[in-house]
């Protein structure tokens, strides 16, 4: 898939655990894990916004397009 999810990188940079982020954002740890693994088919803008607010980052810090 040409969209790469760099959520693990941002979590490490911000020293935030997945469980903490899931609680802040209001999603389950299972759904966050699916997103982190790149297996998610979609992400709601409201969820992306909440993640960006929690990690003080931009969407481009989390999602990357790579030509196949």
Proportion of residues in extended strands? 5-15%
Average pLDDT figure: 95
Multimeric status of the protein: single chain
Helix content: 55-70%
> pLDDT below 50 for ≥5 consecutive residues: which ranges?
none
- Structural class assignment: mainly alpha
Order of helices and strands: EHHHHHE
How large is the count of helical segments? 5
Outline? globular
DSSP strand count:
2
What distance separates the N and C termini? 8 Å
Radius of gyration: 11 Å
What does this structure look like?
This protein is mainly α and 68 residues long. The chain is built from five helices and two strands, in the order βαααααβ. It has helices at residues 7-14, 18-25, 29-37, 45-55, 59-62, and strands at 3-5, 63-65. Helix 2 (18-25) packs across helix 3 (29-37). The longest helix is centred in the C-terminal third of the chain and has 11 residues, at 45-55.
Précis, in short:
The chain has 68 residues and is mainly alpha-helical.
Helices and strands in order:
Layout: E1 3-5, H1 7-14, H2 18-25, H3 29-37, H4 45-55, H5 59-62, E2 63-65
Antiparallel strand pairs: 1-2
Helix pairs in contact: 2-3
């Amino acid at each position: 898939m040409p969209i790469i999810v760099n959520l693990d990188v941002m979590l490490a940079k911000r020293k935030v655990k997945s469980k903490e982020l899931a609680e802040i954002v209001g999603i389950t740890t299972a759904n966050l894990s699916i997103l982190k693994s790149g297996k998610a088919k979609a992400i709601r803008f409201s969820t992306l916004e909440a993640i960006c607010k929690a990690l003080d980052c931009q969407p481009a810090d989390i999602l990357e397009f790579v030509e196949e």
